[in-house]
Write a structure and sequence with these properties.
This protein has helices at 2-40, 90-105, 126-132, 147-156, 199-218, and strands at 47-48, 59-62, 67-69, 77-83, 112-118, 141-144, 161-168, 171-176, 180-183, 189-193. With 219 residues, it is of the alpha+beta class. Strand 7 and strand 8 (171-176) form a beta hairpin. The longest helix is centred in the N-terminal third of the chain and has 39 residues, at 2-40. The radius of gyration is 26 Å and the shape is globular.
C-alpha cells in the first residue's frame, strides 16, 4: 500500500512538472521560430523585390580595368545605380544622396559597395568614370561595358534607355530608369528605391539588410 501510494503520489507530482517542461520547451521553439521569421523578412522603406526573377547578375569592367560580377562583392550590401556622367540632374542627385547615406552609415559603410553602371559607354570611358564616380565617395566604383554588354545588363535589370539627339553627335542626352537596386550580402536582389526618396531610405534599408544578414549568420 505504501508502495502504491508512493507511486501514485509520485505521478501526481511529476505529471504537472512534465507538462510545464513541455510547455516551456514549446514556447522556446515558437519564440525561436518567430525570431527566425523576422530575420528572413526585413522591413524596408523602399520596395521589397525579394525573389525577383530579374537583376540576377552583371559582367562589366570597373573604372580600374578589372572585370566585375556580383560575386566579387559577396558579404557586402551592394547598391546598384544606372546613370551616365553627362546626366544634368538625376544622376548627380542620386549619387550625392548615396554619398550622404554612406557617411551616415559610419562603420557599417565598410560592409557596403555602391556601384554606378553607365548607360552611355560611348562617352563614359574608363578614365572618365575613374574621375567622376570616386568624386562622390572614394569607395564607389564605376562600371561599364561595350554596347552589347550594356544592352545585356540594362535588359537584365529592366532599365529603359532612350538616347535623344542633340546639336552634335556627341551632344546628346539619355533618358533612363532612375531607380536604385539593393542586394543583400548573399547577393540576392532585395530592394528597389525609386528616384528622389532621399538618403534616409538608403540608410534604413541598408541597415535592415545588414542586421538581417548578421542574424541569419548567427542562427
Amino acid at each position: 500500500m505504501i508502495g502504491s501510494a508512493g507511486t501514485a503520489r509520485s505521478r501526481s507530482v511529476s505529471e504537472p512538472a512534465t507538462w510545464r517542461t513541455l510547455f516551456v520547451a514549446l514556447a522556446c521553439v515558437l519564440a525561436a521560430t518567430l525570431c527566425a521569421c523576422g530575420q528572413e523578412r526585413a522591413k524596408f522603406t523602399g520596395t521589397d523585390v525579394s525573389g525577383a526573377s530579374f537583376g540576377r547578375d552583371f559582367d562589366l569592367i570597373d573604372q580600374n580595368g578589372t572585370r566585375r560580377t556580383l560575386a566579387d562583392f559577396r558579404g557586402k550590401v551592394v547598391v546598384l545605380f544606372f546613370g551616365y556622367t553627362h546626366c544634368p540632374d538625376v544622376c548627380p542627385t542620386t549619387m550625392a544622396q548615396l554619398a550622404q547615406a554612406t557617411h551616415e552609415l559610419g562603420d557599417d559603410a565598410k560592409r557596403v559597395q555602391v556601384l554606378f553602371v553607365t548607360v552611355d559607354p560611348q562617352r563614359d570611358t574608363q578614365e572618365l568614370l575613374s574621375r567622376y564616380v570616386p568624386a562622390f565617395d572614394p569607395s564607389f566604383l564605376g562600371l561599364r561595358g561595350d554596347a552589347q554588354a550594356t544592352d545585356r545588363v540594362t535588359r537584365e535589370f529592366k532599365i529603359l534607355v532612350q538616347k535623344n539627339s542633340g546639336s552634335s553627335p556627341d551632344n546628346y542626352t539619355v533618358d533612363h530608369s532612375a531607380g536604385t537596386y539593393i542586394f543583400d550580402p548573399q547577393g540576392r536582389l532585395r530592394v528597389y528605391v525609386s528616384y528622389g526618396q532621399g538618403p534616409e531610405v538608403f540608410v534604413h534599408d541598408i541597415r535592415a539588410l545588414l542586421r538581417d544578414s548578421s542574424g541569419a549568420t548567427a542562427g
